[in-house]
Amino acid sequence: MIGPAVLYIVLVLGVPFLLALYYSVSDISMGSRTLGFVGLKNFASVVQTTKFQTSLKNTFVFAIVSQILVVVLGTVLALALSRDFRGKWFVRLLILLPWVAPISLGTIGWLWILDSTYSVINWTLEALGLIGADGWYMWLGVPYLAMGSVILIQVWRILPLATVILLAGLTSIPHDIHDAAQVDGAGFFRHLFQITMPLIHPIMLVAGLFGLVFAFTDMIVIFVLTRGGPYDTTQVLASLAFFTGIQGGDMAEGAAIAVFLFPLLVAVAIAFLRAARRTEVM
After folding, report:
1. Are 43 and 131 in contact, with CB atoms under 8 Å apart?
2. Residues paired with 37 in a beta bridge
C-alpha cells in the first residue's frame, strides 16, 4: 500500500538529493561533459570566500530572528483566534491569505510596497508629516533596512502556518483544565504561563522547526526582493547556491553550498523533535 508513496519520495526527493551530494564532491560545471571526483575540495574552496562567510552569517540572522518573531506573533494570534467573537471566520481567512496565495505573487506586491520611488509606506509617512520629500527611505537599498525588510516579509509568509499549528494545539487542550483554573482564581498571566504555554510547548517546537527549515532552505523572498543585495548584505546560502550553481555555471560549488547546512538542519530537527517528545512525556 505504501509502495507508490515510497517510489514518489525516492524519485522526487531522494534522486535529486543524492545527485546534489555527488555534484558537491565532483568537478562538474555547466556545459562540461566530464564528471571527476575531487573529494572535499569544493567545500574547502567555498568556505574560504568572504561571500560564503557573509551568506552564512546572514542565513542565521535571517532564520533565527524571523522565527522568534513568528513564534511570538503566532502565539498571540492563536490565543486571540481561539476566543469567540463576531467575524472570527473572516479574520482567520485574512490571516491565511499569505499562505494560500502564490509566494512569488505576494512578494512582488511587497516589492512595489518597498520600492524606493513608488513605496506606499514612504508616501504614507510623508502624508502624515513624519518624513519630508527628500527623506524617503530606500527600504531595499540600505543594508540594515534591506535585511529588516526581508525578515518582515518572511514573518508575513510563515506566520499563517505557525498560527494554524498553534491554534490546533490550543483547541486540543481539554476545557476541564481551563474551567478548573478559573475556579481556582487563576488570573490571565498565571493561566497563560502556567497552564496554556506548557501544554502547547510541544506544538510550539514543531511550528518553530517548520519555520526554521523553511527559512534555512528557501530563497524566494530574497530572490524576488533583493537578489542578495545590496552588496551581499541579504545574501543567504540558498540564494548563493542558486547564483553560483545555476547562473554562474559552477554546479559543483553550488551543490557544495546547497548541502553545507544539511547536517546542521538534521541535528536541529532531531533536537527539536526529541525536546517535543520529552515535553509530551512530562
Report:
1. no
2. 26
Angle (nearest 5°) at CA 230 between 225 and 235: 70
* Confidence label for 207 from pLDDT (cuts 50, 70 and 90): confident
Q: Any idea what DSSP says for residue 32?
A: -
The grid coordinates of residue 238 equal 540558498
Among 162, 251, 154, which Cα is nearest to 207's? Answer: 162
How far does CA 243 lie from the centroid of its chain?
19
Coil, helix or strand at residue 37? strand
| Region class of 226: left (phi > 0), else alpha (psi between -120 and 50), else beta | alpha
Looking at residue 282, its pLDDT comes to 55
Neighbours of 264 (CB within 10 A): 11
**For residue 230, is the peptide bond before it cis, meaning its omega torsion is within 30 degrees of 0?**
yes
Place of cell 487563576: 186
Structure confidence by residue, pLDDT tens digits, 144-185: 999 999 999 999 988 988 998 888 888 888 878 877 877 777
Contact assessment for residue 239 and residue 223, using Cβ atoms and an 8 Å cutoff:
yes
- Phi–psi pair at 87, nearest 5 degrees: 80, 20
Residues 6 or more apart whose Cβ sits within 8 Å of residue 108: 224
Among candidates 268, 163, 159, which has minimal Cα distance to 209?
A: 268
Task: Quote the pTM value.
Answer: 0.86
Does residue 78 contact residue 163 with C-beta atoms inside 8 Å? Answer: yes
